[in-house]
Amino acid sequence: MIKKLPFILFLIFSLSLTAQTTKVITIDWGLGSNPNATGNANASRTIEVGDKVTWNWYSTGSHNVKSGATSTETFESAYFTNGGSYSKTFTLVGENYYVCTPHANMFGTITVVAEGALSISDTKRLNFDVFPNPASDKVSIQLPSGAQNATVQFYDSLGRLALSKKVTATNDKIDVNALSKGIYILKVFTEEKIGSQKFIKN
Q1: Cα–Cα distance between 4 and 151 in angstroms, integer?
Q2: Which residue of 98, 100, 102, 108 lies most exposed, with the fewest beta carbons within 10 A?
């Protein structure tokens, strides 16, 4: 038991650190909630794996939240008419389109990226371009001025590394034929910076 105590304490400490990094994103859910709305009524957000989204009903009428057929994760709330809330913790990298079933003009997309991708400081964030995107055979990674070498990694919707390649400022093409069709998170690492964005394989 004494030998196990340090491990148990380490496990508890690790879990507490994980809990501290979880974010809660709130969306005001009612007539007018869509990707073009301002403030908390904006229904499209980008979050990290493990973050929770809470929809708060603010307008009268019967509304719900239901994931679309192509969403990475499946979720559906009850119908609320006067107030109420629904929460969902997202655990997979990918895109989650959702809608209010009775009101098609209430919709949005929750884009989930790898844990830590959004917490990169501006000084450490790498800005790069990938084209074409979507693509079926080859893509080019355009590194910013001054960056000569980088490692490029493709992560699937389950967060698994699917492909890793090296690129340079003069040889920036990557063959993606081996990737299955779907949505990936593309990460690019240089010696000092890291960047990420969504990539679609046709």
Answers
A1: 39
A2: 102
